[in-house]
Structures are given as structure tokens and as C-alpha cells.
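Posting this for the archive.
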Amino acid sequence: MKKVLSFFLIVFIAVFFYSCKKNKIKTIPKPKKQETKIEKVQEEVPKLKVEKLSEEEIFNKKSIEELNKEQVLKIVFFDFDKANIRDDMIPVIEENADWLKKHPTVKILIEGHCDERGTVEYNLALGEKRAKAVKEYLISSGVSPGIITIISYGKSKPLDPAHNEAAWSKNRRAELKIIEK
């Protein structure tokens, strides 16, 4: 009987362990990721022809207002109570002369300006002297005198309305304005 009991005990233990055995869950294998191939498609973009305009064509396309706003003709500044051309302004006037010689159809107005100090009459006379000085220098540089008109505004049109030396130095000037193309 001991043998039978031992046998049943062994069978019982075996069945017990077999029934307690972990059940494996079947997993469904994940599908393999498909590699997507991205092809680079290059479309040819039509190249735009950019015509390079000559300086004359650019000049012809711009209005007088645009040219004056761009200040193609530079301002000439003066010392206090003086109408003679300063040494540092000679290259500016020569640059203006070169531009005017390249554009011989242009007519200009040279405006003489002063700072606020002095009487109205004195500043009108000084502004005229400044405009004449610039005109004479342009003519001596080969610019036709027939394209130049002058006017003096004296102190009536300040570039900078402040009341200090920095403003006054800006107001002592001759401005070259294009009046006809």
C-alpha cells in the first residue's frame, strides 16, 4: 500500500505542477514595417530672364520726384556766413557734375539755403551767393550753363528746424533739384 500511495502522490504532484504550469499566450507577430521610399522629384523651374537695365534705361523709367527723393544730386554744405565751396564739398560737386554730364537732357534748380541767424534780406542774398557758387563750379566742370537755374530761399526752408549748431550746419546748404528730364 505504501507503494500505491507513493505512486498516487507522485502522480498527484505531477498533475498539480502540470496544471499550475504557466500558459503561454500566443502573440501574433507584428507585421514588418514597410519601408516607404521617397523619391525626390525635381521639377525644372523655368528660369526667368532678368534683363539688366542700363543706367540710362533706369533713369528714363524714374519720375523726377523719384530721382529727387533718391538724391541722385547730392547736397552741398557751407560754413557759417560763407558762400565759398568747402574743400570737403568739391568731390560732391564733381560727382554731381559727372552725373549731369551723363544726363544732358536734365534741367536743374539750385536752391540756396541759410540757417536762421541773420535778417531775411541778408540770408536771401547769402543763399543766392551759395547757389551761384555751386552753379559756377558745375559750369567750370563742363556742365552746360543752360540747364541750371538758381533760387534763394534764405532761412525760410530749414532742413532741420532745431535751434542749435548741428541743425544750423545742415541748413547752410545748396540743394540741386531736377526740374526737367
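The mean pLDDT is 87. The chain is about 40% helix and 15% strand.
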